[in-house]
Specification:
heterodimer; A: alpha+beta; Immunoglobulin-like; 2 domains; four-stranded antiparallel beta sheet; three-stranded antiparallel beta sheet; 25% strand; B: mainly beta; five-stranded mixed beta sheet; 10 strands; 50% strand; rod-shaped
């Protein structure tokens, strides 16, 4: 009886999967099944604060799996400071985002350990980032003693980014302005996006408190009830700018043009009052924003 | 038969689902693991050379006892300090005594540092003090030795017979905030004559 129930369900799942796959192949949609996320240490260089006398020694070794640096400090003493410069490389084919940093130091009275906090940094495929770990021996450290510490740098695979529409961006600002909705981007990041746009754009400038900036951006995206072509162009252009600074435009082109090229063309048209080009650039911005 | 195929198929689907989930949950932790071995500041009394009687001796203390009189009022003491720690050290001498009337004079001569002790600075010295002594102690590298010759002269004409004077000579090795000390304690009695 159970077999009779299970068999059609499984067959249905298989059939649906095959249909979906065949359809996507027939339509030329590329299915990237080979997704690899991997980070490794490529370099670890130790040095220290000893100038005249060479009393203590610091050595580093990257393990075979390349995800651990073994640091050995011998003959250390109070005031001795060891530094480890390291390089991390993304050897996967997806961007990786650093999510957290944990320093496990059971003896904070004897050791002061600091390290570069990569949290929030996104590392694209083949990209590298460098950091520095500092180990400082404090006065209460015991002679002829052994101390240990551990630093954990966590990272996760970043979901593939794609351009978002005006609607998406409006929905990001709206909840912070008291309107209904559930934002996917935190307030600080959004404000940072607007600040970046203000410093790079020749058309947009957001000023005042974060709320005032959000209101200015929202108004542009929302457009007046009877929008002119310039209003429409500005709304699509701002959405494109947001996609650009958020990294959602990376790797995408529309009609052979990249996001910075469309932005430049659109801003040029606005700044020079080329009204006959407004619709063209509005369509270019809109087309790009709808690629996702 | 059907059941077996179905079970295998279900397991396969389940595994694929789990794999997909695992990918979306991919997380990597890079680690920096450190081990620190701390240094040790240590000096030890390797040997001593004196005409006084040794009443106690450890690696860090030496108790000497003896007498002086008007014809024999100078005491020479030689010691070898070995840096048995893992750091270089600087040596500092301090002398304390229960004599409050300044009836004791002293002079110290330092030789070294050495990896091999030269006999002409130690037990085969033709004269005391040996030649080329320094007035201040040099820095003592790890696993090397320092010869110290200390001259104590008692102004016996000022010390009544039967008086016992105690002198404590300390050699403190210092590296950063860490120290180690060797102490030599003299108990000297003024005898008649």
């Amino acid at each position: 009886m159970k077999t009779k129930i299970l068999a059609p369900i499984i067959l249905a799942i298989t059939a649906l999967s095959l249909i979906g796959y065949s359809y996507s192949c027939w339509n030329g949609i590329h299915i990237d099944c080979y997704c690899k996320c991997d980070l490794i240490f490529t370099k670890a260089t130790p040095w220290d604060n000893e100038i005249e006398k060479d009393v203590a020694t610091t050595t580093t070794q990257i393990t075979c799996d390349k995800d651990t640096i073994i640091v050995k400090i011998t003959n250390a003493y109070p005031c001795y400071t060891a530094y480890i410069n390291y390089t991390i490389k993304n050897i996967g084919n997806r961007p990786v985002q650093f999510t957290s940093l944990t320093i496990i130091n059971p003896n904070p009275e004897a050791l002061e350990i600091t390290t570069t906090n990569h949290t929030g940094t996104v590392l694209g495929p083949c990209q590298t980032t460098t950091g520095k770990t500092t180990v400082h021996i404090l006065q209460p450290a015991k002679q002829n003693w052994q101390y240990q510490f551990e630093i954990r740098i966590c990272a996760k695979c970043k979901p593939k980014a794609y351009p978002r529409t005006i609607g998406f961006w409006k929905n990001q600002f709206a909840p912070y302005l008291g309107k209904p909705g559930n934002p996917q981007i935190d307030r600080e990041t959004l404000e940072n996006y607007l600040n970046q746009i203000s410093s790079q754009s020749q058309v947009f400038e957001f000023t005042g408190t974060w709320k005032q900036k959000f209101q200015q951006a929202y108004n542009i995206l929302e457009m007046p009830k009877r929008p002119t072509m310039l209003d429409k162009l500005k709304a699509q252009l701002l959405a494109l700018w947001l996609n650009q600074v958020a990294g959602y435009a990376e790797g995408y082109t529309y009609k052979g043009m990249t996001a910075p090229e469309i932005i430049q063309g659109s801003e040029n048209a606005i700044l020079n009052g080329l009204t006959n080009q407004y619709e063209y650039w509005k369509n270019m911005c809109e087309g790009f924003n709808n690629l996702g | 038969m059907h059941k077996k195929i179905l079970t295998t198929f279900t397991l396969l689907l389940f595994t694929m689902a789990i794999t997909g989930y695992a990918y979306t949950r991919w997380q990597e932790t890079l680690q920096i693991q450190g081990t620190l071995n701390l240094a040790k500041v240590q000096i030890t009394l390797q040997a001593h050379n004196t005409t006084l009687t040794t009443t106690e001796q450890t690696s860090h203390t030496l108790h000497l006892k003896g007498t002086v009189n008007s014809s024999n009022k100078t005491i020479w003491t030689g010691i070898i300090i070995n840096n048995t720690g893992t750091t270089p050290v600087t040596i500092q001498q301090t002398i304390q005594t229960n004599d409050t009337q300044n009836r004791i004079q002293n002079q110290t001569f330092y030789y070294g540092p050495y990896t091999t002790i030269p006999t002409n600075k130690w037990d085969n010295s033709p004269t005391l003090p040996p030649q080329d002594g320094a007035q201040t102690p040099p820095e003592l590298p790890t696993q090397q030795t320092l010869i110290v010759w200390l001259n104590i002269t008692m102004l016996t004409e000022l010390i009544p017979a039967g008086t016992t004077i105690e002198i404590t000579v300390s050699y403190t090795a210092t590296f950063q905030a860490w120290t180690d000390t060797i102490t030599i304690k003299y108990t000297i009695t003024r005898t008649p004559g």
